[in-house]
Design brief:
With about 350 residues, this protein is α/β, with parallel strands linked by helices. The protein has 16 helices and 7 strands. The radius of gyration is 20 Å and the shape is globular.
């Protein structure tokens, strides 16, 4: 048993009257002790559930990020004049609504806006459809690439994916705890704003509960990240909803959040989310979008693509962003980007196998 970790557990688990918040340094130390196995399983499980009940502070999340930044992987800066967008999407995936973020990433990369994503396999508590599985169905197998090969693909295509089971194996032990607890611990909140990229970034995490927005703002401020977009998206992702007004928080030069409300009906987008069927059905629908076919998922792709083209400064407003997204899908250049990414990742994977990486 670790006596030091026991002290951290006593602070977060002592209840409303005698409990205390951890300092940023203490949260970083506790996180490293969990990842490095220096605390016992009983201590770790108790800490995770106690911290969830207490709710994390911005200082605590900042300390967790410090530990992830110290122990975890980083894609290195690439040649680009634009801040790299890092999408923060829940690791436990999607179960109800069709995701569109891989298509959004392809669209943005097509026009020179680099994107980094991160995640793993089907994980607790939802065991939903993860990004890595979608990419694999589209012909891009990030799971077989070393971090070095991923860096090469990222530099050439503008899309990178940090596959945590391989690139950050220290966090693999956390998933059994999450499964046994049946609840997401504060680590799940922190992962949404973790940045596995070492250069200039634009952080775009999704969230569900309104208090999370202010928590993200404060935590990102402690890490001196000034460019961010906070999206109350589908199932906690950064995919904009179509069945309701999208609520979005934008960073500003003053440090305050600028509130943005986007109603699909104002842009002639049908107010209906696309339900998630089988993975095969989703992949077929995504291929139809890339072929320029008018489908329900195309409306989702245009709604999201238009916003992110505007937010990244490529289009001057939402309407022109939607029009540009439609033109890019119809022209086939987004499909060409997927072909380039698929071919390059396949070659990199083969080289990794040959070189024993």
């Amino acid at each position: 048993m670790s006596n030091l970790f026991r002290q951290f557990l006593q602070k977060v688990g002592s209840g409303n009257h005698t409990g205390e918040n951890l300092t940023r340094t203490e949260a970083a130390t506790a996180t490293k002790m969990i990842l490095l196995g220096e605390a016992t399983p009983a201590q770790i499980g108790a800490f995770l559930i106690a911290h969830r009940i207490k709710r994390p502070t911005a200082d605590e999340l900042a300390g967790m990020l410090d530990a992830y930044n110290e122990l975890g992987p980083k894609l290195q800066p690439i040649a680009t004049e634009k801040p790299v967008i890092v999408f923060g999407i829940p690791y436990d995936g999607r179960t109800r609504t069709a995701p569109i973020s891989p298509i959004t990433a392809l669209l943005l990369a097509t026009v020179g806006q680099p994107v980094v994503m991160h995640g793993g396999d089907r994980l607790p508590t939802k065991y939903g459809l993860p990004l890595a599985e979608i990419w694999q169905g589209l012909g891009v197998n990030w799971t077989s690439l070393s971090l070095e090969k991923t860096q090469q693909v990222f530099a050439e295509t503008g899309i990178g994916f940090v596959y945590t089971p391989q690139h950050f194996p220290l966090i693999n032990s956390l998933w059994e705890y999450r499964d046994q607890l049946g609840k997401r611990p504060p680590f799940a909140t922190m992962e949404l704003i973790w940045c596995p990229y070492a250069g200039d970034v634009h952080i775009i995490p999704g969230f569900v509960h309104p208090p999370t927005e202010a928590l993200f703002q404060s935590t990102l401020g402690l890490h001196n990240i000034t460019k961010y977009t906070l999206v109350k998206g589908l199932e906690g992702s950064c995919d904009l909803p179509r069945d309701r007004t999208a609520i979005i928080g934008l960073s500003s030069p003053t440090g305050e959040i600028e509130r943005l409300h986007l109603a699909p009906r104002d842009y002639d987008i049908p107010a209906k989310n696309v339900p998630l069927g089988t993975t095969e059905e989703l992949l077929t629908e995504m291929q139809a979008v890339l072929a320029g076919t008018a489908t329900e998922l195309m409306e989702t792709a245009l709604w999201n693509g238009g916003f992110y083209l505007w937010r990244s400064g490529i289009s001057p407003d939402m309407r022109s962003g939607i029009a540009t997204a439609k033109e890019l899908f119809m022209s086939g250049v987004v499909a060409d980007k997927l072909k380039q990414l698929s071919q390059l990742s396949r070659v990199s994977c083969q080289l990794s196998v040959v070189n024993g990486q």
